[in-house]
TrEMBL record:
Stored InterPro entries: LpqE-like (IPR007410), Lxx211020-like (IPR058248), PCuAC_sf (IPR036182)
Leader sequence segment: 1-18
Protein name stated in the entry: Copper chaperone PCu(A)C
Native organism: Marinomonas algarum
Keyword flag Lyase: no
Record's keyword annotation contains Metal-binding: no
UniProt cross-references to PANTHER family, sorted A to Z: BLR7088 PROTEIN (PTHR36302), COPPER CHAPERONE PCU(A)C (PTHR36302:SF1)
Keywords, comma-separated and alphabetical: Signal
Length: 142
């Protein structure tokens, strides 16, 4: 009886059914002297048959870590905080310049070329995934 109850609890757990994204091409821009903010880019692929909603991000490297987007309004670029970003089943969402990105605000330290930082994505089903992001200084990247 105890094994049956334990099996039912495990099967009912949201962790047992959570869809996970495949994240690649991760990089975080080194911040320029005097800047306390930077941004991170990635490619988020959903190989599952379930839609995935990213509802947030966390990093120990900054006081605040947020999902953002850039959009154009005529010749003005507007940055907007996004409450969530959907990655539909079988789809890929690219986070990059002039689109979605992860904003790191009030950095705890200077981001230096060649380092790595961890960013954790949070999903609407209560799960999360941590990923390593390579710090890249565009002036030093070859």
């Amino acid at each position: 009886m105890k094994k049956t109850i334990a099996s039912l609890l495990i099967a009912a757990s949201p962790l047992a059914f959570s869809a996970q994204l495949e994240i690649s091409k991760t990089y975080l821009k080194a911040n320029t002297p005097g800047s306390d903010n930077t941004l991170a880019y990635m490619v988020a692929e959903n190989p599952t048959d379930e839609d995935v909603r990213i509802i947030g991000a966390e990093s120990t490297a900054s006081e605040f870590t947020e999902l953002h987007s850039h959009t154009m309004d005529g010749d003005r670029m507007i940055m907007r905080h996004e409450k969530y970003i959907d990655v539909d089943a079988g789809q890929t969402v690219r986070f990059g310049p002039h689109g979605y990105h992860i904003m790191l605000i009030n950095l705890e330290k200077r981001m230096k070329h060649g380092e790595q930082e961890t960013i954790t994505l949070k999903y609407n089903d209560g799960t999360s995934q941590a990923f390593q992001f390579n710090v890249i200084d565009p002036r030093k990247a070859g």
